[in-house]
Amino acid sequence: MADLVIITPHLKTHLGGCGKYSCQLAATIISKYSNHRSIVIEVNFDDGITADSLVACVQDDLGFNDPIFGFSLLISSSAADYLFISRELKRRGYKTFIAGAEIDYVYLPEVGHRTHEHRFQGNTTEFDFLFEGPAEHIIPVLDDIQDCKEYAGRPGVTTVRDSEVIRGNQPQYCIEKLVEVDWGNLLILGEDLNKREIQSGVVLAQRGCPYGSQSKLLAIDPPIGIDLPPYEIQTKGCSFCHYGGPLTIPLEHVLSQIRNIPLSNGRRNFYLSHQNPFPLLPKLIEQAEDIGTIHLMSLPGFIRNHADRVRSTIIQAQKKRIILDLSCIGFESFTPNVLRNLNKNTSVEQNMREIEIMIDLEDNFRNFNITPGCHGLIVPTPWHTSDDLAKEFALLKENDRLKRTYGGAIFCRQLRITHTGGLSNWIRFVEENAGVNYKRNSFGQIEWHTDAAETWPFEYSRKNKTDVVVTDD
């Protein structure tokens, strides 16, 4: 039997106690609609997990004798471990694949990789295939693998055969299947294999981003220090993002998901996956029962433009003893030129006004919280001058409202450019016309920042070069 083990990394952030929605949903669907068993294992790579120890626990503890390993929720700090473990599993004869939304940059070779040796050559030997799409469409692939049949060209599957990329059609999502998650199918592997307790579930109210449906022709500036004309790209939402427009989940399915969240002290706590949640909240709060805390994400702008509606929603939640926790809002920058190149559709002044309103709400309502340090901050970018960096971090460390929003020690990330992402053609234009070759890392990101790091006016984390750390000295 081709049983599926879904591997996902352990997160050491405010999301650490949260369920792994996409992984657990996939395991639920596979177990329910096929004869294949499936389980999700959260791996703490700091505990020295190896391919042998992973196989041993899967076989001895779970009884999965001939498992297939799917790797999901790739984060930069775990990417090297993913590649190593998958390579070792394949060497031992196991099938492996990588799965997730917009994760093709990890698997596929970069355009022009044959004529430009420095470009990303892909990870088609580290993984057998890439899977993107609804989990029910992996079931025929598992059947094919079990029966030793060819699965290339199946819906949602991308493979490389004899240097030729074969991409199956992208199937549509079935909303009814997006709501039936078994929150008990998550294990954690450290020194031992144990069941992972879920402190908060995830409720999918929207897939994708509403801003991602807004197309725009945007002229991107060259990196600082490079004399080139702007390069036009067709953006959909933020220039660095390529999630696309939203699929909205009907309210009855949202409520069904809430009822499925495990109770914790008699209440249901969850992250609401919706980029613009406040218009939805009044009906949700009115009709749902036993809600404890709702963790919210939001695009910048709604709180600023509809402060009265947000205030009335908080009052409505207060009457039912519901806590609204603003866990993530994507401001991304407090430098004007950077905001323009990121196509954030907002200004520094508007961001500051929104933060002012957020803090006023937190000060006046005990059931409205701002999670510090978890809001979007992309620093540095190719468009930051040294003066920009110094000013931005001075603002972040000295402005009282920003200190409350981002916390005492500021954690941010430099702009990540993948070879299939929205800025990929722009960065290749820069390379070809400025005579530079940026390094590619082992999982398909273009490291434009490597040389620039020596001149940044703050501490740069060498252990994990995707993170920038500013200490609160």
From TrEMBL:
<dbReference type="InterPro" id="IPR007197">
    <property type="entry name" value="rSAM"/>
</dbReference>
<dbReference type="InterPro" id="IPR058240">
    <property type="entry name" value="rSAM_sf"/>
</dbReference>
<keyword id="KW-0411">Iron-sulfur</keyword>
<protein>
    <submittedName>
        <fullName>Uncharacterized protein</fullName>
    </submittedName>
</protein>
<keyword id="KW-0408">Iron</keyword>
<dbReference type="InterPro" id="IPR051198">
    <property type="entry name" value="BchE-like"/>
</dbReference>
<keyword id="KW-0949">S-adenosyl-L-methionine</keyword>
<keyword id="KW-0479">Metal-binding</keyword>
